[in-house]
Every structure is written in structure tokens, then in C-alpha cells.
Amino acid sequence: MAGEATKALSNDVLWGGGRSPFSISYGKMMMWFFLVSDALTFSGLLVAYGFVRHSTTEAWPIGEEVFRALPFLHGSYPLIYVALMTAILIFSSVTMVLAVEAGHRMDKKGVIKWLFLTVIGGAFFVGSQAWEWSHFIHGGGGYITTTDGAKYWVHTKDHDTHDPVNAEGFHLEKAREGHYLLPDESAHHLDHAAAVKLWNERVDYVDGANMTRNEYGPSQYATFFFFITGFHGFHVFSGVIINLIVLIMVIKGVFHRRGHYEMVEKAGLYWHFVDLVCVFVFTFFYLL
Amino acid sequence: MLRDDIIEYSLDAHHSEEAGRKIRKNIWLVTLLLAVITTVEVALGAYWKEWFPESWGLVKLGYIVLTLEKAGFIVGVFMHLGDERRNVRMIILLPYLLFILYLLFIAIWESNYVHRMLELFQ
């Protein structure tokens, strides 16, 4: 990027007063400072997640076993949906940087095209996240705990029931010791009568996820999921709104009259940061 | 009040068609790299653990390295921090690293302790 920042200036000129020694405008500098503080907030959340996960003595759920569903498809696709969401955000980050590049050439049409695609990508991400949350909250069949402390997975043909014992195809599968999600392969398959008997002897039934308990693991797992992805999703949402406002201003020709497209750059910084956070959440919440 | 600071540096941040072509090529190259890294991460998570469960710890370490690599590309190229002056890079990165390295140290140290205490008293 050719500009003031690449000019070789001596320290006497840079720090001699009457100019920014950083060769960066006030707005961009403040956006960077805001992003650093926001990055500290997200790091705090992810470190808190790591703290709880590392200190707990309970079994902790694994990302590729919790997030393995795709909309409209049956079967197991570990982390594919989350990877697609990350890819959408990375590509909308690419269209954003192309919008910034077009702005440097004062190419109004190019800025409109790329910024529009960025808004579309962001809206797709927010929509995908709504589906992910809905799937996480509804969960699978859930599990029951029997008097001897064993856990059994509940299976039915219809996933959206809170009365599984009367649903079609009801059966139970013993969960592996110390593990929430994997079935115990050595256990006998339960027939319907035995499953109903166990169901009637249950001491607990956990189905889906909410703020106090969830079927995937310790309650902190779902609360961290809600807080971290929710906070990030809110950032994406506000980023889409900001990009939309900037897009309208570009179409109205505000920046062309001003002589530079720095506002696109500043909105772009925020948008890339949102993408950056997504990369970290993907690794530290889903992958590890 | 006239905001001369914005005008002065922003007007200078323009480039020609020719420079634009080079910059766009670089952007698409970085895009390809990011896509490849993400695909590798998902493939490792989906298959490696089933095939070689004993080396999972090493893969986790690899995840962190790949993530930092991706972060470097996003911050350096997409956010143009690599094109800014060195003193700008330092006032952004150093305070952040200072806090985060301390936070990581204290979180790992304390969670180790809490884990041991929970094992002892539960």
C-alpha cells in the first residue's frame, strides 16, 4: 500500500511536531485502540473457557462430537458446519479488503460491488449461527440417568419431542463411562420393553441445552458456548449494520465527494477483526 | 474545526491501477492460504484422532501454530498492519501481548492448582 506510512522520513521530521508521528489518521488509530481492547475482552472469555476446562475433573465434551450436524442432511459431519461458517466469514473478509483496495483507486462501482458482497456474507453468517444455536438448544434425544448413576442416550425417530417414551422408535443406548456423547460399544442393545422399564426408573432426564444444564457435558460448556459465540455473533451483527450504513453512504457518493474512502477502511478494520475472532473461537472452542 | 489530520494522510493512501493489480493478486494468494489451512484443520480433527489417537496432543499444538499463522495473515495483510510504520505496529501489538501472555501464564498456573485441589477433595 503506497502511502504516507511507506515514506522514509527521519525521526526528526516524524517526531518534530505538526504531524502524526505514526503516519496514521486519528480515526484509524482510535479504531485500532478499540480493537485492542475488544481483543482483550475476547481473550478474557476464551482464557476463562480454558481455565474451566483445564481445572474441571468432569468429562468435557469434544467439539467434533457435539457439532456434527448439517441442515437438511442426516448423518455425521464433524465440524463441517462450523468450518463452513468460518469460511463464509473469511470470504466476506476478502471481499471487504477488495472493497478497501477499490476505494484506494477511487473506484466507486468496485467499492459498491465488494461491500455489497461483504454485507451478504455477514448476513449469511448471522443466519447460520441462528441455525447452529437452534440445533444446539434442541439437541438430540438427551440422556437419562438411572439410580445406579449410569447414563443412557435416548433415541427416537422424531427429534423434537419432550415425551420420547411415547414417540415412535424409542430406544436407549448406554453411554460410555465418563463420557457424555459416545455410546458404550460393549453394552447390550436394549429392546423396547427394557428401555421403557429403565425410563420409568430414571432419576434424571436432560434434553437439549439451556443456561443451567445441557446434554453435552458440564453446565459451563453450554454457558460458555452461549456467551462466546453470542458475543461474537453480536459483533458480526453490528458489523453488518455498520457495513450497510457505509454502503449506503458510498452509493450516495459521500466519500467520493470527500476525496477518499477511509471510512470503508475503518469499517473494514472492524470487519477483519470480527473474522479474526472467529478464527480463534473456531480453534479454541471447537477444535481443541 | 478543520480536521487536517484525516485529509493529509488519507489522500496519500491512494494507489494506481497497476499497483492495485499486484495488491489484488496478493489478497487472493492469502485467501487461498487461509482456505487451505482451515481445510487441513478440519481434516485433522475429523480423521487424525481416529487413526493416531496417541499423537493428538501434538496436533493440538499444531492447531495453535496454524491459528497464529492465520491471525498473522489477517492482521498483517487484510488489516494492513504490515504496511504501517513500525511504531504503529508496536503500540498495537506490544501492550496486547504483555497482557495476554501474563493472563495465559496465570490462568494455566491457577487452573492446574484448582484441578489438583478438586481431585484431592472431591
Describe the structure.
The complex is a heterodimer of chains A (288) and B (122). Chain A folds into two domains: 43-139 and 218-287, Four Helix Bundle (Hemerythrin (Met), subunit A) (Up-down Bundle), CATH 1.20.120; 143-206, no CATH class. Chain A has helices at 11-14, 26-55, 63-66, 80-104, 108-138, 192-200, 219-251, 254-258, 262-287, and strands spanning 143-145, 151-155, 171-174, 204-206. Chain A is mostly helical. In chain A, a hairpin with a 5-residue loop joins strand 1 and strand 2 (151-155). Chain A has a four-stranded antiparallel sheet, covered by helices on one side. The longest helix of chain A has 33 residues, at 219-251. Chain A is built from nine helices and four strands. By secondary structure, chain B is mostly helical. Chain B has two domains: 1-83; 85-122. Helices cover 84% and strands 0% of the residues of chain B. Chain B has four helices and no strands. In chain B, helix 2 (17-51) packs antiparallel against helix 3 (56-78). Chain B is flat, with a radius of gyration of 22 Å. Chain B starts with a helix and ends with a helix. At the A-B interface, helix 2, helix 4 and helix 9 of A face helix 1, helix 2, helix 3 and helix 4 of B.
